[in-house]
Amino acid sequence: MSIIIDTEECTGCGACVDNCPFGGMEIKDNVACITGECTLCGACVDVCPVEVITIEKEEFKIPKMDLSKFKGVMVIGEQFRNEIQSVVYQLLGKGRDLADKLGVDVSVVLLGSELDDKLKELGEYGADEVIYVKSPILKDYYSDLYVNTLTEIIQERKPEIVLIGATPTGRDFAPRLSKRLYAGCTADCTGLDIEEDSGNLLQTRPTFGGNIMATIRTPTSRPQMSTVRPGIFEPIENIKKKPKITIIEKKLDEEDSVTKILKIIDKEKIAINLEEAEVIVSGGRGVGNKENFKIIEDLAEALGGEVGGSRVTVELEWIEQDRQVGQTGKTVSPKLYIACGISGAIQHLVGMETSDIIVAINKDPNAPIFDVAHYGIVDDLHKVVPALTEEIKKRKSKN
Q: Where in the sequence is the domain holding 93, given as residue range(s)?
């Protein structure tokens, strides 16, 4: 893309100079000229009174794809210090479901250095094949090495569907990978299914601030790529498959990457991990204030669970950001989720509706949270929650 100036027709009025936000235009000998600060933003084109400045755009063509050559579901695995992350098993569970509907196989790709003894168990979670890219440097995450390696594998294997965890790591490399492959990538999916007539992947995600659930199709390109929130899908265990294991030895070192890892800082062991919690007690605006969150904390402690909250409680600084449940927070699926004073906006529901048991406490009988709750208590949470806590403590003391 480039800026073109018709110097013969330019009047040197200076409108382009005055309106350029980056200092990318100047007047020389009564003619507009481009400086090295130009960012091709196009502001000069819009303000030129004699229309002598234009942008010439290069035509970008996506190569045509033979969709019939793409087959199978591929899960991009994630490991940290050679420990396979839980999101991999969740993606395999959904990948197995999608593959069975299509009548195809599921493969999982792992990049690491010491995963040899952890590969066979992936068959128990639905993998037909495990592709293990092995190199000492891959014990850590290098974005460009991941993108280069995964591009090669996907171009060779040609899966029709690629699933990636919407983790910090997955969110980093997924868009770069999709660009390399000329494929679309639907981010932060909360639902995946197969369209019966076409066999296309139906990718559902919240949009417009979580007020609408959009279902996206990519019918003209492959692979169909999705990043999926951790905690959305359940692993499928004991399938008893013996996966084909393919090990690819890679000779890589730091010089192969444009980045260099200087230091890895671990989160403290006490760091909040809502995704793994079996019991979560969450508070919303109805709690009233930061001090009142003490009753939420007491109930969570009595149940041996974690404290969560809605977005507004984070914005009001009643709880930490790490404890937010919802579209812009954590997606959780505990065995028990207790929502106290939470109305049930869709932004919150998408983050907890897959919980095994949902108990809602709210004095508004019409609150949307009751539509997804298994059990509902219509009353003042400031009376109900302390009473629940006291009763639980009494029963625990008897045991």
A: 67-254
Answer yes or no: do 241 and 184 share one domain. Answer: yes
Could you say which DSSP state residue 222 is in?
A: S
In this prediction, residue 213 has a pLDDT band, given cuts at 50, 70 and 90, of: confident
Res 8 pLDDT > 50? yes
Whether 78 is covered by a domain: the verdict is yes
CB atoms within 10 A of CB 56: 8
CA 199 to chain centre: 24
Would the CA dihedral through 275, 167, 270, 349 be positive or negative?
negative
Say if residue 223 is preceded by a cis peptide, omega within 30 of 0.
Answer: yes
Closest CA to 40 of 28, 58, 27: 58
Q: 229 and 184 share a domain?
A: yes
Domain count for the chain, please give it: 3
Beta bridge partners of 54: 4
- Dihedral sign computed on CA atoms, order 328, 329, 332, 338: negative
Residues 339 and 215 placed together within one structural domain of the fold: no
Domain membership of residue 62 (yes or no) is: no
Q: Which of 300, 278, 310, 305 is nearest to 385 (CA)?
A: 300
Asked if 293 contacts 317 with a C-beta cutoff of 8 angstroms, the reply is no
CATH number, domain at 36? 3.30.70.20
**For 54, phi and psi rounded to 5 degrees?**
-135, 160
CB 178 within 8 A of CB 185: yes
Largest pairwise CA distance in the chain: 94
Examine the domain organization and report whether 86 and 15 are in the same domain: no
| pLDDT (mean) for 152-157 | 95
Tell which of 219, 254, 289 closes a domain.
254
Amino acid residing at 208:
F
Distances (CA, A) of 245 to 91, 145, 193, 216, 217: 18, 22, 27, 33, 32
Reported pTM: 0.66
Environment class of residue 64 by beta-carbon count within 10 Å: exposed (0-12), middle (13-18) or buried (19+)? exposed
Q: Do 254 and 135 touch, CB atoms closer than 8 A?
A: no
Amino acid at 373: A
Of the pLDDT bands very low, low, confident and very high (cuts 50, 70, 90), residue 266 is low
